[in-house]
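Predict the 3D structure for this chain.
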Amino acid sequence: MRKMIFTVTLLLAVFCSIAQSSGSITVGGDLDKFYPVTFNDGGWDNNVPTKLIIGRSNVHENETWRGSLMAEFSFHTYVVGHTSNFIDVMIKNDVFSWTENTMKKFIAGWVDPTYGPGIRGIIIWLRGGGVTYHYTSNFSVDPVVYDGVQNALPFNNSGTASYSYKTQADRYVNSLGYTWGTHHNFLGNVGIDVALPAEKLEVNGKIRAQEIKVQSGPWPDYVFKKVIHYLNLTM
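Done. Predicted structure below.
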């Protein structure tokens, strides 16, 4: 019995060591540009999401005050029609540049390019200029850097699309928190700076928006009427 337990434990350890992947990459090119890096969806054939961590613990790695980063990507790719695909991201990164009065972001965007033939994975745009990134994943991800030095730009995905560098982060990138796919549904109450929200949405502070859409049904619209009345009085 003990021999069997030992054998099973050994096999599990070997399997985990094979499945897990870790290493580092350095993205060349220019410091003010973000370059596409491909990461394979190693968990796809194992029926689980691929979980990728990209990190830079030392803010002085590569040069003084280059910046630190912790980012987690959980994803499952589309692969020409398998519609359980998603990309969820958490980013805690950057170092504030007092001279430029802005955050020095490391990640400018990501995309699932698997709507056609080509790679089975995702593309992440990472800051170049000789920045080193360390990665760990539950499956093999085999990163490939397209910075015009290690591999040519743009990256052509089997003729379906081409991807070049970015000069700024896309609007959907939250560099100080979570980005969940494209749709967010909350079954309970949501509070912003409110510990125990009593309504579907409670905000303890100001709200800024480019547009507010008011719909009369199927829920009661008396709350929105008060808001519109207030806006009319203040305009």
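The chain has a mean pLDDT of 85.
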